Amino acid sequence: MKHYDIDIPHGGEIIKATYYEAPNNKCIIACHGYGGSRGSAAIRHLAEAMYPHGYSTLCFDWPCHGESTSPRECFSIMACLEYLDTVIAYLKAQGKDEIYCFATSFGGFVALRYAVLHKDAFIKIVLRCPALKLAWLFGRPDVLGEGGPVITKELIAEAQDNETEILDDDLASKLLIIHGTADKLVPYVDSSDFAELNGVLLYAVQNADHRFKNPDCLMLAIKYAETHFLY
């Protein structure tokens, strides 16, 4: 599988990305979680699963994550939404005009908000254990642990302002949520309540934790995502 690291210009910054390139116009944008990086095992497994079907995958480091040079104290939801703008524009310039999204935890929050603001951005979306109540989660630094950007009162307020509760029918029909029933960071009930309210397809992975550390659970989630993207 052909893949390589790329630098995507973004104003005065560089977005660090890895591109698993397949020879057609379909591409999955993969968004990692808070405190993570584009080197996620889940993203790599997804890219490997989708490549034989002709889907490229592009993953990148959020601001203040991975190889990003953004100062940790400058992290914001708006900055992440602007990163997505730039990544999508880059892909379209490469001829990738059918764009899908796979996003985890914090990345799921941002991707969902982006899809609400840009109705036609993604053909289909898979959210794995999305942090739908991000403001509440950011208020629990003891649970989040160290290594991520600085969480300020302003960031918590911004997360609250960007929280998504109600979807229109078209967006709901594009969406699949995958969530582990043993998730102690982002409660499974958040996804189940949201899915029921909006008529969104939800797959529960029994005994999976937030990071899907069990390989069998992770590969089941990848299979669910693969099926959703293909059909």
Short description:
The protein is α/β, with parallel strands linked by helices and 231 residues long. It is built from nine helices and eight strands.
Overall description:
- The protein is α/β, with parallel strands linked by helices.
- The chain has helices spanning 41-50, 77-93, 106-117, 134-138, 141-144, 153-161, 169-174, 188-198, 215-230; strands at 3-10, 13-20, 26-31, 55-60, 98-104, 125-128, 175-180, 201-205.
- Strands 1-2-4-3-5-6-7-8 form an eight-stranded mixed beta sheet, with helices on both faces.
- The radius of gyration is 16 Å and the shape is globular.
- Let me know the average pLDDT: 94
Largest sheet: 8 strands, mixed
| Secondary-structure element pattern, one letter each | EEEHEHEHEHHHHEHEH
Radius of gyration using CA atoms only:
16 Å
